[in-house]
Amino acid sequence: MGLDFKTAEFLLSEAERKVSFQRLLVLGRQNVTMTPFEIAKVKELTGVTLRPSGFADEFFRALGATDLSFLDRSEYEGADVLHDLNQPLPPQYHARFDTVIDGGTLEHIFNLPVALRSCMEALALGGRLMSFTPADGLMGHGFFQFSPELFFRACGSANGFEVERMLISYLRRWYEVRDPAQVGHRVEASIGGPAILCVTTRRCEIKPIFGEWPIQSDYAGPRSGIEAEVNPKLSLKDRLVTRVKVLSELQSRWRIYKGHRACRLSNTSSFRGLGGTLLSR
Question: Which of 127-131, 188-192, 229-233 is the least confident region?
Fold first, then answer.
């Protein structure tokens, strides 16, 4: 787990939005993974001098953390909240923190629903869960790679949450991610290089979490994707294509091409470019 410059930039932009980091829980002790130039830029922005590969504690304090805690399954890196996230969070930590930061932990936890619920339960009313997780191009990094829809559905109103920000960082540029339920189709990305999904969700109401399991938006309605697959209604064109091998091959390649185009970050129905920085300074 590490604090790189793009993660730091996102957190600083959240501080600009007046998000409270006062009572802060960080999953794991974050190490600084920045170049000397990036460390100098962080010092310019915060006044804090970070050490390469050192802990990022002072950065979190610069964000406003006066009550700073670290959660880990062992004391190896000095965590003060000892807990295995595969197990439910003890009640004494419920509704306790203003912000919980997952800087690259959840994708390594096998019992993901329990771990995510614990992070959500740890938040006080109005508190934020911020997650920074691989979105593409990092197979083998953890057990999982998360799609945007995981957070849109799990951290929705049914569980007392709302997604405030959903961004992708790729090649030093930022992109806003649209909610699949709002745009009416899956929001997919096949980028070809490492990309990071950065999410802020807010707890709007204290209520039981995952009383009902989240459902992907295109399977939630009465005419779901499953129904369409079970009861296909082929047009005359499609019936002809299925009978002519050459046409079938051409149609298959065209659909693959269209699918690749739809998965690019330039697809404005799914993503919106925000430029190279999130900061006003």
Answer: 229-233
Q: How far apart are CA 279 and CA 10, in angstroms?
A: 8
C-beta neighbour count of 186 within 10 angstroms:
16
Task: Say which CATH topology domain 2-217+267-275 has.
Answer: Rossmann fold (3.40.50)
pTM for the predicted model, two decimal places: 0.85
Q: How far apart are CA 165 and CA 14, in angstroms?
A: 10
Angle between helical axes of 36-46 and 5-16 (0-180°, round to 10):
10
Residue with tokens 């900061």: 279
The residue whose two tokens read 């209520």 is: 207
Would you state the structure tokens that stand for residue 221, as one six-digit string? 């309605």
Quote the tokens at residue 90: 């003890």
Q: Shortest CA distance to 53 belongs to which of 118, 91, 3?
A: 3
Helices (H) and strands (E) in the chain, counts: 9, 11
Q: How far apart are the first and last CA of the chain?
A: 27
**Among the ranges given (16-20, 67-71, 257-261, 271-275), the one the predictor scored with the smallest mean pLDDT:** 257-261
Buried b (16+ CB within 10 A) or exposed e, 1-22: bebbbbbbbbbbbbbeeebbbe
CA 61 to the chain's CA centroid: 23
Which of 145-154, 177-186, 256-265 has the weakest average pLDDT?
256-265
Of the pLDDT bands very low, low, confident and very high (cuts 50, 70, 90), residue 221 is confident
**Is 107:143 a contact under the CB 8 Å cutoff?**
yes
Residue 277 half-sphere exposure toward CB, CA atoms < 13 A: 5
Residue 206 in contact with residue 125, Cβ under 8 Å?
A: yes
Domain extents for the chain?
Answer: 2-217+267-275
